[in-house]
Design brief:
With 259 residues, the protein is α/β, with parallel strands linked by helices. The protein is 41% helix and 24% strand. Strand 8, helix 6 and strand 9 form a beta-alpha-beta unit. Helix 2 packs across helix 10 and helix 2 runs antiparallel to helix 11. One of its GO terms (cellular component) is outer membrane-bounded periplasmic space.
Length: 259
């Protein structure tokens, strides 16, 4: 009996390194799949979009398996902290506030925020032109924080939603006067659709670093510098080998990486 137990223990000791190696080759990535064209669902239920394709290219570069885990945006950082996944690749802006909670890779794209309202609307001065307006934002986003700090004191009512798609639905239905969000997301996810007819961008680009950060990066748990550096190196590699441009050209007609 002791011999059988010893053989069993030996077998486990031999299998454990293999199992650990297999697990180490998988990168669990959190993503919100309701943010076109960056991440959204196809009719058959699969995730696609710029963020998703970039993640696949990064995993190929690092020679690891991508394991995608869906999560609403406002739950991404809490879920990362409790180890539901290893990284967040979901158009997350690199801000000083978030850096206190997580570590980031270098940016993988950077696009400005914009305000969208009914065509013909004018916004020359936030302090007067947004008074009494209902502005929809995605909860816990940088756009939520900006609208709360800048638009609300000007007299705007800030209405928060779990996803930007929900914002677009209420904007189209006339329950909102406008929304502030990523310019590409507004254009591709709303203005170019039937629901977005009769709406347009209003006012300037919003790029204040205090709110909108240094671009969009991939978040990892605080202190996991090794993973952040590994992913950052992979971002640079796919930019150099042409994979990044191929993915970018699939979704956009301009450079989203920025300066």
């Amino acid at each position: 009996m002791k011999k059988i137990a010893l053989l069993g223990a030996l077998a486990l000791s031999l299998l454990s390194p293999l199992t650990m190696a297999q697990e180490a080759k998988a990168l669990r990535i959190g993503i919100e799949a309701a943010y076109p064209p960056f991440a959204y669902k196809t009719p058959d239920g699969n995730i696609t979009g710029f963020d998703y394709d970039i993640g696949v290219a990064l995993c190929e570069e690092m020679k690891v398996e991508c394991k995608w885990i869906e999560q609403e945006f406002d739950g991404l950082i809490p879920a990362l902290k409790v180890r539901k996944f290893d990284a967040v690749l979901s158009s997350m802006s690199i801000t000083e506030e978030r850096k206190r909670a997580v570590d980031f890779t270098g940016k993988y794209y950077a696009t400005p925020a914009k305000l969208a309202m009914k065509s013909g609307a004018v916004m020359n001065d936030v302090a007067t032109d947004l008074k009494g307006k209902k502005i929809g934002v995605q909860r816990s986003s940088v756009y939520d924080r900006y609208a709360t700090d800048v638009f609300a004191p000007a007299g705007a009512e800030i209405v928060r939603y779990s996803s930007q798609n929900e914002v677009f639905l209420d904007l189209s239905a006339g329950r909102l006067d406008g929304t502030i969000a990523d310019s590409v997301n507004i254009e591709d996810g709303f203005l170019k659709t039937d629901a977005g007819k009769g709406f347009a961008f209003v006012g300037p680009d919003f790029t204040e670093e205090k709110y909108f950060g240094e671009g969009q990066g991939i978040a990892v748990r605080k202190g996991d510098k090794a993973l952040a550096e590994k992913i950052s190196a992979a971002i640079l590699a796919i930019r150099e080998n042409g994979k990044y441009k191929a993915i970018q050209d699939k979704y956009f007609s301009f450079d989203v990486y920025g300066k």
